[in-house]
Amino acid sequence: MADHITISKAPGTWVVRAGGAVIGETTRALELREGDYPPVVYFPREDIAMAFLEPGTRVSHCPHKGDATHYSIVTKSRSLSDAAWSYETPKEDVARIAGHLAFYTGTDEVTVEQL
After folding, report:
1. How many Å apart are CA 24 and CA 113, to the nearest integer?
2. 1 has pLDDT over 70
3. Of the chain's two ends, which shows fewer C-beta atoms within 10 Å, N or C?
4. Nearest to 43 by CA among 110, 109, 92
5. Positive or negative, the Cα torsion across 41, 105, 67, 79?
């Protein structure tokens, strides 16, 4: 693994909310730490209400993790473009995040929190 990336089990129960609704809750979250960036919580796909997510067209690339597919979250009032991402086939060193989703939390519309 890139020496600046660590992945560990995120302790406790985690929830993700979008548009005020809980769209996921898990006790099986992973926490990815990469260099000086804030930690990112990855939710198992099975613990997310995938009916609220639509695959987008955006793909981003990380030299350490691989290509990320982005998703929009569809709420009752609007669609939040590229609000989540997933490494469908991550590089071998970070394979633990395969099948998981992470969420952009820079606005009040999407929040990730530990209960």
Report:
1. 11
2. no
3. C
4. 110
5. positive
Tokens of 88: 């469908």
Rounded CA separation 62/88 (Å): 13
Tell me the three-class secondary structure of 29-93, residue by residue: CEEEEECCCCCEEEEEHHHECHHHEEEEEEEEEECCCEEEEEEEEECCCCEEEEEEEECCCCCHH
This model's pTM is above 0.85 = yes
**Residue type, position 46, single letter:** E
**Residue 18 pLDDT > 80:** yes
d(CA 64, CA 97): 12
Q: Does residue 3 register a pLDDT over 90?
A: no
CB-based contact 61:68 (threshold 8 Å): yes
18/74 Cα distance (integer angstroms): 9
What one-letter code names the amino acid at 44?
A: P
**C-alpha pair distances (Å), 94 with each of 37, 62, 65:** 16, 12, 6
